[in-house]
Design goal:
Its cofactor is pyridoxal 5'-phosphate. Keywords: Membrane, Pyridoxal phosphate, Transferase, Transmembrane, Transmembrane helix. Homodimer. The chain is mainly alpha-helical and 139 residues long. 56% of the residues lie in helices and 12% in strands. Strands 1-3-2 form a three-stranded antiparallel β-sheet, covered by helices on one side. It is elongated and about 65 Å long. The chain starts with a helix and ends with a helix.
């Protein structure tokens, strides 16, 4: 009887476009964090600027990005996939983005940072990106 009542009266089941309460709760919590912890935005952007500058100095093309998501233009799909795979083998998860998400011959890696990334982790990531980039003759 209770299950029948919920099936017929629960708005999230009747209106499938409505978001489930758990999703709404998560969104509200995220908005509170954004409002109450501005240091997270500041820190992630600072860390991204540091890594982006170092990548450019090493010869990578970061497509003039300015966010915490740093693209590294590679070009050919196979080389981009190989780069991503080799980084994964080095315990560094960097996604390969390829057509149709991006135009042909503009496949890239997508480095995504968090505010909580440590400086030594950034150094390790840069070292591995440079090492694999040289092996694949990207830089």
């Amino acid at each position: 009887m209770l299950i029948d009542y919920l099936r017929n009266k629960s708005r999230t089941l009747i209106y499938t476009t409505a978001l489930p309460p758990a999703v709404i709760g998560g969104l509200l919590a995220a908005l509170r964090i954004i409002r109450d912890e501005p240091w997270r935005r500041e820190r992630v952007l600072t860390k991204a600027a540091i890594l982006r500058k170092a990548l450019k100095e090493k010869g990578f093309n970061t497509l003039d990005s300015q966010s915490q998501i740093i693209p590294i233009l590679i070009g050919p799909v196979q080389k981009t996939l190989e780069f991503s795979h080799r980084l994964y083998e080095e315990n560094l998860l960097v996604s390969a983005i390829r057509p149709p998400t991006v135009p042909v011959n503009t496949a890239r890696l997508r480095v995504t940072l968090m505010a909580t990334v440590r400086d030594d982790d950034l150094e390790m990531a840069l070292t591995k990106l440079v090492q694999v980039g040289r092996q694949l003759r990207i830089i």
